[in-house]
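Subject: sequence -> structure tokens, single chain

Hey, anyone have a minute? Need the predicted structure for the following. Not urgent.
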Amino acid sequence: MTDFFAGIPKIAYEGPDSDNDYAFRHYNPDEEVFGKRLEDHLRFAVAYWHSFAWEGGDPFGGQTFLRPWFGDTMEAAKLKADAAFEMFAILGQPFFCFHDADVRPKGETFAENTSRLREMTDYFQGKMEQTGTRLLWGTANLFSHRRYMAGAATNPDPDVFAFAAATVKTCIDATQQLGGQNYVLWGGREGYETLLNTDLTRERQQAGRFLSMAVDYAKKIGFEGTILIEPKPQEPTKHQYDYDVATVYSFLTEFGLQDEVKVNIEQGHAILAGHSFEHELALAASLGVLGSIDMNRNDYQSGWDTDQFPNSVPEVMLAYYEVLKAGGFTTGGTNFDAKLRRQSLDASDLILAHVGAMDVCAAGLKAAARMLEDGKLEDARTARYAGWTSERGDVLDQDLETIAADVEQNDINPQPHSGRQEALENLVNRYL
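Reply:
Had a minute. Here:
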């Protein structure tokens, strides 16, 4: 046991009238929604990197957090794990997720990195057996080290490609050992700054081959989870090959992987790509590739990925509406890829950030369930497209000449109908 969270009680559900900071008002894990426990709908996961590895820096300033586990030793890594699993227990979090570089100190060689990751994987396994906390997903950090400044899979140097591929192999192994339900490929630097030094065709082929190798290896070792890609626009590179859901799906179909890989969608990335979160979720669901979500938000007055904890029930409701409409999560879940503000220094800040986020998500999902169960929004959508289920709907089966003749002979002169956007926005707000 550590004393980092000393004095902080285990968080319990007390209901919407509670004035206890250390209590859930909306998240009751055993509450049933559509015949399934709320915990099983939401499948919350703590992000190891932002909660335990991030030091509080930003582009204009360095470290502000002073954590007792910060250090480049295995002893510090194990102390970090001890504190992490204590926090999981306080929050009742069913899952966590990590990058390899979050959990083991950086080695001088690939062999040293691998040895340290294996040792920490064994340590995690013991912790997971003691607490019952599970792994939502594992991934490799292929973006922080200077070797990846020109990408990993898309790097012009084949030795960097090889080092990255070998690293992914070890991380899939770790995820498999820990019973991870997904494995994520997050292409933080799989892009380019300028076309003047970039071969787009080669780099896309490299990225496709890299992903295919990861899928093949996961199958070879009997990994039963889902392989995920996280769409990522801009930041840090100017152009990203995995810009948004549509771009990723195009990439998957190009390499015949559309039935092998799904997407892990982040709210902040959706906004940076010029979309809404619910748009990306709805598109992924319609394409059959919706896997998991990173539930965070951006500061809308800032032009970069600020990774803030969710605090808007209306936004979250629209996101979970798309998730529920698609049938809910299978292997995926709700990962808090969110970090404290760099002035929030205390252990209690880390706990309360998650408490608030979990409550917002629970309230949003329950509102989404009410809206879906009521059916009025779907009824309005169905009514808007009703013509396509009438006898006029056979126009799709005709050719241009037949359609033109029909329009002329029957003097078809359609008039527009209201899209009723404001009325539907008012309707949505009734469920909050």
